[in-house]
Amino acid sequence: MAHERGNGNKYFRGYEICATGIRNFVARVGIPFYSFDACFSKHLYYTGVYRNLVALVDTKAASLTNVPVALTTEESELESLYSGLFKVSGCNNADSELAKQMKEQLSCVIGDGAPQFFNAAQSTLGIQKSIATCSLHVKENTRKRCKTGWNEKLFWRLQKARSRRERDTAWADIQSTYSPAAVNYLRAQLDDDMSAHGRPWTRFAHRHKEICTFGRKGTNNPVEQEHSKQVPMRHHEPNRFLLSWGKTVREREDIFLTTAEKLVGKILTPWADRIFENNHDAMRTIISKKFTGALFQEPSKQCELLLALLFFF
């Protein structure tokens, strides 16, 4: 969105964009893992925040695929940055299939622990929905506070504990090893982890609250591992970042379409066969290469082409 300063010069403010075909697809097939992740721009001529909504598809035993659903930008990490993702992806609509899937108890909706995201998520999904926190963020925040005695393996022992006994043993070792500031921070995170409307980040809490978790490589958020590769894109100015994101969306759409064509006439399990038959006829409509864009001050504006959402100085 272009805005004018007092001297008449225009500058870029932000955009909100959703890959509606992918959104409809992941909601309809019942993907249970949705991650909200932010990264800060480091471009010379632009200061702001990019925010992603990503669905996680468990494709193979050792392979997880991030599927981009929506993207927003804002000048700072405000609640509006997060609310924009729910708005542009249609989750604010009463009949939203995506929102209904997110509200399922089994589904994991996970963020970085920021209160702005937590507030936006609960406003959309309701206070009964458990909003998880990325354990990688908890680990890094603990490490920064740990002036002496940092031991990463000890942290992951606590995060991966399956029983109360394992959890208590790991916590006791941490208290005798980490510096006081780190222990105090982690104690608050553990209290929040198990509270009724808290933000679970340990495997024990996920199991206790019956939330789907993958737990590969010692984390409850495999999406974050992929997003760490996005660092070079932070040096892009907004329109190049959006084009890179759009390219990834198109690649994922092509994979879905190719897979759908290969499944025609194949023998599937009863569950998979039912899902496929219910969706195959509309597959190319559902996975259509179209985008819905919502300007910050014009939420009803519809855009068919990605480039129509680029706003130049």
Q: In brief, what are we looking at here?
A:
The chain is of the alpha+beta class and 313 residues long. It has 13 helices and 9 strands.
Question: Mind explaining what this structure looks like?
Answer:
The chain is of the alpha+beta class and about 325 residues long. The protein has two domains: about 1-135 and about 220-310, no CATH class; about 135-200. It has 13 helices and nine strands. The model is unreliable at about 1-5 and about 280-313 (pLDDT under 50). Strands 8-7-4-5-6-3-9 form a seven-stranded mixed sheet, sandwiched between helices.
Our Rg estimate from Cα atoms comes to 21 Å
- Which shape, going by the Cα principal axes? globular
Series of secondary-structure elements, N-terminal to C-terminal: EEEHEEEHHEHEHHHHHHHHHE
| Total individual domains | 2
Number of strands: 9
Helical amount: 40-55%
Assign the structural class, choosing from mainly alpha, mainly beta, alpha/beta, alpha+beta, or little secondary structure.
alpha+beta
Main sheet strand line-up: 8-7-4-5-6-3-9
Which residues form runs of ≥5 with pLDDT under 50? 1-7, 282-313
Question: Approximately how much beta-strand content do the residues carry?
Answer: 15-25%
Number of helices: 13
N-end to C-end Cα span: 9 Å
Q: Let me know the largest β-sheet.
A: 7 strands, mixed
User: How confident overall, as mean pLDDT?
Assistant: 75
List the helices and strands and how they pair.
Layout: E1 2-4, E2 10-12, E3 16-18, H1 20-29, E4 33-40, E5 49-60, E6 63-74, H2 79-88, H3 97-103, E7 108-111, H4 115-125, E8 131-133, H5 135-145, H6 152-160, H7 164-175, H8 180-194, H9 203-208, H10 222-227, H11 238-263, H12 270-279, H13 283-286, E9 292-293
Parallel strand pairs: 4-7, 7-8
Antiparallel strand pairs: 1-2, 3-6, 3-9, 4-5, 5-6
Helix pairs in contact: 1-3, 2-4, 5-8, 6-7
